[in-house]
Amino acid sequence: MTISHSSLPADSYCVIMAGGIGNRFWPVSNTQCPKQFSDILHTGKSFIRQTYERISRIFPDERIFVITGAEYEEITHQQIPELPSGNILKEPLRRNTATCIMYAAEKIKKIAGTATMVVVPSDHFITNDNAYWKDLRDGIEFVRKNGGLLTFGITPSRIETQYGYIQVRTAEPGKKITAVKTFTEKPDYELAQKFYESGDFLWNAGIFIWQVEDILREIRKHLYDLYSLFENNTSLNTPAEEEFINTIYGQCPNVSIDFGILEKSNQVYVLRGSFGWSDVGTWHAFQALCKQDENNNTSNSSQVIFHNSHNCLVNVPEGKIAIIYGVDDLIIAAKDNYLMICHSKDEEKIRNFEKQLKFKK
Amino acid sequence: MTISHSSLPADSYCVIMAGGIGNRFWPVSNTQCPKQFSDILHTGKSFIRQTYERISRIFPDERIFVITGAEYEEITHQQIPELPSGNILKEPLRRNTATCIMYAAEKIKKIAGTATMVVVPSDHFITNDNAYWKDLRDGIEFVRKNGGLLTFGITPSRIETQYGYIQVRTAEPGKKITAVKTFTEKPDYELAQKFYESGDFLWNAGIFIWQVEDILREIRKHLYDLYSLFENNTSLNTPAEEEFINTIYGQCPNVSIDFGILEKSNQVYVLRGSFGWSDVGTWHAFQALCKQDENNNTSNSSQVIFHNSHNCLVNVPEGKIAIIYGVDDLIIAAKDNYLMICHSKDEEKIRNFEKQLKFKK
Q1: Per-residue pLDDT at B1 exceeds 70
Q2: What distance, in Å, lies between the first and last C-alpha atoms of chain B?
Q3: Which residues pair with A322 in a beta bridge?
Q4: What is the pLDDT confidence band of residue B270, given thresholds at 50, 70 and 90?
Q5: Which of A19, A60, A263, A347 is the most exposed place for a label (fewest CB within 10 A)?
Q6: How far apart are CA A165 and CA A148, in angstroms?
Q7: pLDDT band at residue A359 under the 50/70/90 scheme
Q8: Element (H or E) spanning B18, and its range?
Q9: DSSP SS3 for B66
Q10: Statement: the pTM of the whole predicted model exceeds 0.90
Q11: Are strands B313-315 and B298-299 parallel, antiparallel or unpaired?
C-alpha cells in the first residue's frame, strides 16, 4: 500500500529534530558533520536525507520543518535542497528537545492555528516504510480524535541499557495505542532484564504526535518559564524571527521533552510501532544492524580483512583496505585525517575525543 | 674529524645492496616502495638516501654502485639522481646476497682489476657517522694489508633473537679486528642470553669489506656453480650486460653470503664497529630506536594520543591524527589507502599481509 500526501490532513506538519552534535561516532561524524548529516551505515545517503525522503512521501515540502543548530543551516540546505529555506529553524545554541519543540509548535501555530504536529528524530534508522507511514497516519488520526500526547514505542528485541523505556498503563494485547504509566531512562542491566521479560515496556523511539494546542497547553502547565518566553511574541514567521530567537534562546531551559513534559503529563499515550527501528546511538547499536562474521566482527566494507580477531567493529572510508590481525574487542574508525582505536569497554569515552583534541591544539 | 674522498684509495668501491622487498613493514613499505626506499623513521629521507649520503662523503659517485631489483631502477634514480645510471645493477629476480655480491665483484673486477670492495646494506639505521667512516677506513686498510673477508660486528646491547651473531675466535680485549670462529643465525632466547653474557659474540651488521680477488677466490672455492656462470663472460660493462644477467640469473643459487661463503671460509675477520647501528628489521627494532612514553607506547607523531594504553606502536602518515584508547600490545600502521592493526605477538605475520591481499583480488 502506498500512501500519498492527500491521505494526510492539510493542517498536519512534520518537524525533523536535527540538533545532535555527533560526538559518539567521532571521527566518522564530528562537529562539522554530526551524525544526522553523516552516512555511517554507508548507504549512500545521510540519516537526515533518508529521514526527509521517508517523510516527504507523506508530507509536502512546505509542511516539513528541520530544526537544527544555526551552524548546520548550510549543510541542511545542501542535503535537502528541496526544503524551502524558511523551513529550517536555526537554534543559536543547544537547548534540548523541550525548547526545540516549543519553538516549532509556536511557529506552526502562527501559520496554521490548530494543527497536528509530528516530531521525528533526524538520525535514526528505520526499515519497513509502509508500516512506518501507516503508524504515523494512525497516530495522527488518534490525536485528532482523542487529544493527548502520543509517543511511539518499539517492542524490545533484547536487554538494552542504553535506551529510554515507556511502560504502558495496562497491557491490552492487540491494542495499538495505550495510555502510558511511566518513563525510565537508561535502566541498569537487571532492571532492563525485568523490563524485557515483563512485556509492559517499550523502547522510546523519540517520535511524537500531538495537536499543537495540546503540546502548548502542557508546556504552559509544566514548563511555564519556557512557555512565557514565547508567549505573545509577534516575531515568528517575520524577518524579526532570528533576532527574537537569538535573544531568548539562552534563557530557555535545557530539558528534554521526555523529562520536562511527558513524565509529568497525565495525557500521554504510546503507539506500538510496527516498523523496524534503531537509534544507531552507539557503535554497539550500529553493530546490531550489521552482518557479523563467524567471530562476531563487523565492518562496513568487504575490504576489511579479519584474522584471528573477535568482536571487532571497523568503520572506514569507502575503498580503504584494512587488515586486522590477532586482536579482540576493538572499535576502529577512520575518516579524513583521523584514526580512532578504542576498546569496546571504553565506548562511552569516544564522545569526549574531539573535545580533547581541541584542548590539545 | 671529517674524512674526504682523497683519504680512500682510488681503487676502492662501495656496493649498496638494495634487494629487499619490504614486506615486514607493510603498509608503510610495500612491494612498490620497499623499506630501503621508505622513510619509516620519518626523518625526511629514505634509508637508501641516508645510506648514499653517508657513503658519498667518502666515495665519489662513480665508485658507488646500487644493486637492486630491476623494477626499482626508476625509484633508485629518483632518490639518488647523483648516481650515474650505469651504476645501478639490476637484478631480474631475487637471488639473495651471494649472487648479488658475485655480480658486483665481477663488474668491479672488469673495471678496476684489483680493487677493494665495501658492501653495505641500504636499509639500516646508523648513528655517529664519523665513527662509521673511521671504521670503514680501518677495514679497507686491513684487507689491503692482510687479505681475507672482513665483516662488521656490533657489540650487543640486549638479548636479541632476531639477529645473526658472529663469535670471535679469541677475545682480545681492545683489539678492533679479530678472526671469526662461528656464525649463528637467530638463536633462541636461551642461546641469545648466553651470547650476550659471554662477550665473545657480536651482532652481524651485514657490512663487508674485501679485495675483489679475495671474495672471487672464495666464491670459486665454496660456490663454484655460481662462479662458473660469470666466469669468462665478456658482457659486463657492455651493452650486452642486461641480457647476460637476465639469462644466467635464474640459474644462480639462492643463498646468502653468510651461509654460502663466510661460514665456510677460514679467512674471515670481524671489525668491532664503534658507530650506532640498528637493522630496523622489525617493528620491535623500530620501537627500540624511538622515544617511548611512560606506558611504553611509541609513535612517529605528536598527533598520536594514547590514553590508558600500553606497549603500542603507531606509525601513521605525517599530520594524521589518532586517538588510541584502552588498548595494549598493538602495532598500528597506516599509509595511503591501507590500515594495519596487529597484535605485537603476531608481528611475524605482517610479512604475508600484502601477498594475502593480492590473492584476495
Answers
A1: no
A2: 55
A3: A304, B339
A4: very high
A5: A60
A6: 19
A7: low
A8: strand B12-18
A9: strand
A10: no
A11: parallel
* pLDDT (0 to 100) of residue B357: 85
Contact A208, A151 (CB under 8 A): yes
Round to whole Å and give the CA distance between B72 and B19: 9
Among the partner residues B322, B325, B341, nearest to A343 by beta-carbon distance: B325
Give the per-residue pLDDT at B359: 67
- Distance from C-alpha of A309 to C-alpha of A330, rounded to nearest angstrom: 9
User: How many residues are listed for chain B in this entry?
Assistant: 361
CB contact under 8 A, B323 and A360: no
- DSSP conformation class of A96: H
Please, what sign has the CA dihedral across residues B103, B104, B105, B109?
positive
Cβ separation B341–A330 shorter than 8 A: yes
Helix/strand number for chain B, H first, E second = 11, 17
Question: Measured between CB atoms, which of A326, A340, A345 is closest to B342?
Answer: A326
Contact A155, A178 (CB under 8 A): no
Alpha helical stretches, state H, A271-360? 283-289, 353-360
How far from B15 is each of A294, A359, B33, B293, CA to CA, in Å? 51, 51, 20, 38
Rounded Cα–Cα distance for residues A321 and A326 (Å): 17
Whole-number Cα distances in Å, A164 to A94, A168, A186, A348: 21, 13, 5, 17
Under a CB-based contact definition with an 8 Å cutoff, are residues A27 and A358 in contact? no
pLDDT score recorded for residue B360: 63
Distance of CA B136 to the CA centre of its chain: 15
* Cell triple for A268: 500521554
Provide the CA B100 distance to its chain's centre, in angstroms: 13
Q: A132: closest CA among A309, A283, A14, A219?
A: A14
- How close is the nearest chain A Cα to the Cα of B294, in Å? 19
**What is the ipTM score, two decimals?**
0.80
Higher-confidence residue of A41 and B242: namely B242
Residue A318 burial (10 A CB sphere; 0-12, 13-18, 19+): exposed
Phi-psi region of B319 (alpha: psi -120 to 50; beta: other; left: phi over 0): left
Q: How far does the CA of residue A1 sit from the closest CA of chain B (Å)? A: 43
- Closest by Cβ to A337, choosing from B308, B320, B346: B320
User: What's the one-letter identity of residue B62?
Assistant: E
pLDDT tens, position by position, B160-174: 888 999 999 887 777
pLDDT tens, position by position, A226-251? 999 999 999 999 999 999 999 999 99
- The tally of CA atoms less than 13 A away on the side-chain side of residue A222 is 22
